[in-house]
Amino acid sequence: MRFEPVVPKPGPKRNLPSRRFAVIGAVGLVLLGILFFRLWSLQIVTGDKYLAEANQNRTREIRVPAPRGSILDREGHVLVDNRTSMALQLDPIEIPTSVAERRSLYSRIGKVLGHDADWVRHKVQETKKNDPPGSPVTLEQDTPDDIVYYLQEHQAQFPEVQVNRIFVRKYPQGLLAAHVLGSVGEVTAEDLAKNPDKDLGAGDTLGKTGIEQTYDDQLRGEPGDTRLQVDSTGRIVSQLPSTLPKPGDSVRLTIDRQVQEAGEASLQSIGLPGAFVALDVNNGQVLGIGSNPTFDPSIFTHPLTQKQVDDLYDEDLGAPLFDRAIGGQYAVGSTFKPFTALAALDGGYITPSTVVNDTGSITIADQEFDNAGKQAHGPVDLQRALEVSSDVYFYRLGADMNGSRQLQNWAGDFGFGTATGIDIPGETDGLVPSPKWLNEAHAQEPKYYDPWVIGQNIQLAIGQGYFQASPLQLAVAYAALGNGGKVLKPELMLQTEDAAGRVLGENEPVVENTIPIDPADRSVVMAGLHDAAQSPEGTSYKVFGGFPIKVAGKTGTAERTGEADQAWYAVLAPYPNPEIAVVVTVEQGGFGADTAAPVALQVLQAYFHKKAEAVSGSSGSVE
Amino acid sequence: MESSRLPRREPNSGFGLLEKVGLAGMDGWLAFSALGLLACSLFTLYEASGTSIAGAPQEYVQRQALYGLVGIIGMIAVSRIDYSRFRELRVGIYTFLCASIFAVFAFGVAARGSTNQLELPFFTFQPAELGKLLLIIALAGFVIDGARRGSEIQRTIRILCLGLLPTGLVLLQDLGTSLVFAAITIAIMVAAGVRWSHLAAIGAVLAVFVAVVLVALPAAGMPVLKEYQQERLTSFLSPSSDIGDAGYQQNQAKVGIGAGGTTGRGDQATQSRFGFVPERHTDFIFAVVAERYGFVGAALVLSLFALLFWRALRLMTLSKNFYGTLVAAGIAAAIIFQVFVNVGMNLGIMPITGIPLPLMSYGGSAIISTFLMIGVLQSIHIESRAAERGPWID
């Protein structure tokens, strides 16, 4: 042993250093062994797991929104497309959990945007409340350039804030067809729950109403994924292979811009709430459809103020958001008479030559029913009764058909009482009253409903009483009259196209029901309607008398309790083989020929003017 | 153990080169392990910290190289001194140790939550780093000095108290370093032959003390440790997902190490490159090595430490006197304890204590002080050979 302790006695035993050396060495070896074992375990045994975690760590996947497809009119004019907007967004992952840090972040961001911390907090909470987890908080859209530049220059101070380019809907035609087009909005948690089969993600844009909703699958496109390599502060280091967004397809509508413009402009010029519908009689395509008052669809591209929301629903302002053309529930007045006539002819209650002496009023079951202003039309046959709109004649038919379901069946066959199935949401069924329905309603709510009496059928014969229909339903019914009995599903979508304009799919006409109308019956009714529009004693002669194209049109003046009469006009043109059906209604518009017919005239002028141009290739006028 | 005491069979320590450059008598393997670790440190810093300081990408490497150079010169200088002289200076050294630590209270500057640095004209100095060496040589001296005075239990208590005074002073500034001080004290006591029963009693008291400080007092509303200290010590038990939180950072280091796999990710080492691994040039440099160079690289570093430890430990038995044995034990323990705590922290099995990895972590005080320790070990080696040669050669 070479070890020589300096303290020989009574120092440690001679072998002490060796023993203690062994202890320290053993402890050291054990410690090193633990490290080696742990290192081996982490790197060799579970290395792959950590590698995956590390890879996850450094990449951030950003959903890149796909530009939404355009909505076009039938000739390809753009009704809706996109513009890009710089949106200031807060990544929810980056929002600190500590209250103090969050507060400081909110006030720092708020300061840049000219707001206080509460404003930012409110935005964050709104998003949290409505949107699915992980949705970016959009603090400001259309951020001014100076703020964008400021944030980009000071990115290090605002790692939580991103300036993202987003797509916002743009409406080059202004208010045109606002009710049809509908609006888009950010996906909410509710949307996600409702559409589990759609590939929706937080922050996506979804069609909420109108065409945007119905054809959302076509319009939306597929978002891409940008995978970014980021450092621990979230700063982007580089971009990794990504999938590009696939732009949405375009939807070409059946809407004809000129027809639509004419209808909207003339309705608006009257200044009363109303609606118009123009249908292609032969295939159900909607050439124009509008509701007045209307709204600017672009307001939905920004967060709405409470006042804006209130105004959209305000009854005093005419509830601009309400689409009267498909959602209105109205008595249609005398425009219903052709269907009463067809039912009566079919049921053998009358023949075309049956004459009724119209003395201006009629008393049935001790109740007197009057013509408008008790005007007497003298002896009238069916054609004449339609021309002058003799109520007495049709009261008679209503009374005769009471007790059978003839009138109800024919109304139902023409589509009344059932939603038409048009490809935008918001439709109503309307109502064709029957004894069964009213008696059941009476049984349930005797206070509000009296039992069925013959008067109900008499009212129904002239489109009054409990009868309710939307302008669209009336247009579909007239189209069926015009085409000889095919009840068509009205369609707004003509075809879908990809971004390059290739047609992807076309909408085929759908015949919901074919009514066996006797051609002779139909021609009598059509003749009556033609006389009503264009023979000197016709109810709308003063409007259509000078129109160069032969039409078949019927006025309607529906009584509404507590309000002025509602004006209606339904017209088929050209007579006798019509292509287009136009229905117009003006709430509180009075006599149908006064307010509704002129709008229908404008629509027909626009339609035929365009057709003449197309045929002659010149600007030849049909007026 | 017999095989480790073979001085006669390797008179040149295997490195004739050292003799030629006037470094005769040095332990070549010891020098090799220390210089190898410094080289690993420089290489890792060179490859991994390029983006840490804007405008001066190699700032860390250059400064670390400078510290290393100063350290090597210091090591050579110290190795030329007979370490036994330190024993005579024990009171002065001990006084300087306590005073320098105390000076930090008066003039210290804060860094990373701890106030443990002194601002000197050319650089900030952490007295506690040098203090590790000073404690070893002073405490070993007191052990020898007091070996004949008092009963066994008195001797035990005396050593303990002498060790605990600077340990306590450091505890007030920097928890991690005070743990190293405590480890040194215990290691020297073990080497000095303090009875196991005494050591067991000390261990029991220590366990109670830790329990009280970490659990009982905070629970009673009297936290002894600062909040960040408490959080660091306990967070490794429950890694959290909160960025900026100690547990999160430690977990990120662990993920980086695991992701390194067998051969490492090189420049794909995203955990350390993109800042997920915190303090990647200092406390977590091991995680950088492990992620970049994998098990191969990390094991190499650990092996160099194992070599260093073995060579230090070996000097316990080679030393010409018992003082050298105690000093070697203290240095071996100080280094292996720091390695274990630091690497353990990187691997997620030890709490975050801010103990640097010797010879690897960036930092002048630690690098230079560790090289001085190596210098003392070299001195023990040189002296042991001289003493050995004496009877036969002279």
Topology:
The complex is a heterodimer of chains A (623) and B (394).
Chain A (H helix, E strand, L loop, with lengths): L15 H30 L1 H12 E6 L6 E2 L5 E13 L8 H15 L3 H14 L6 E4 L4 H9 L7 E10 L7 H4 L2 E3 L2 H6 L10 E3 L2 H5 L1 H5 L3 E7 L5 E8 L6 E4 L3 H14 L3 E7 L5 E7 L13 H8 L10 H4 L9 H11 L8 E3 L2 E4 L2 E4 L7 E3 L1 H7 L2 H11 L4 H8 L21 H10 L9 H8 L9 H13 L2 E3 L4 E5 L5 E4 L4 E4 L4 H16 L6 H4 L7 E7 L7 E8 L6 E7 L5 H25 L7
Parallel strand pairs in A: 2-10
Antiparallel strand pairs in A: 1-8, 2-3, 3-4, 3-5, 6-7, 8-9, 10-18, 11-12, 11-23, 13-16, 14-15, 17-20, 18-19, 21-22, 22-23
Helix pairs in contact in A: 3-4, 10-22, 13-15, 13-16, 13-20, 14-20, 15-18
Chain B lengths: L15 H5 L7 H21 L10 H21 L4 H5 L1 H18 E4 L2 E6 L4 E2 L1 H19 L6 H20 L3 H18 L3 H24 L7 H9 L10 H15 L9 H4 L11 H34 L3 H25 L17 H30 L1
Antiparallel strand pairs in B: 1-2, 2-3
Walkthrough of the structure:
The complex is a heterodimer of chains A (623) and B (394). Chain A is α+β, with helices and mostly antiparallel strands and 623 residues long. Chain A has two domains: 60-252, Penicillin-binding protein 2a (Domain 2) (Alpha-Beta Complex), CATH 3.90.1310.10; 257-297 and 321-608, Beta-lactamase. In chain A, strands 2, 3, 4, 5, 10, 18 and 19 form a seven-stranded mixed β-sheet that branches. Chain A has a five-stranded antiparallel β-sheet with strand order 12-11-23-22-21, with helices on both faces. A three-stranded antiparallel β-sheet of chain A has the order 1-8-9. The longest helix of chain A is centred in the N-terminal third of the chain and has 30 residues, at 16-45. With 394 residues, chain B is mainly α. Chain B has two domains: 33-108 and 116-194 and 226-389, no CATH class; 195-224. Chain B has 15 helices and three strands. Chain B has helices at 16-20, 28-48, 59-79, 84-88, 90-107, 127-145, 152-171, 175-192, 196-219, 227-235, 246-260, 270-273, 285-318, 322-346, 364-393; strands at 108-111, 114-119, 124-125. Chain B has a three-stranded antiparallel β-sheet with strand order 1-2-3. In chain B, a hairpin with a 4-residue loop joins strand 2 and strand 3 (124-125). In chain B, helix 6 packs antiparallel against helix 7, helix 6 (127-145) runs antiparallel to helix 14 (322-346) and helix 14 runs antiparallel to helix 15.
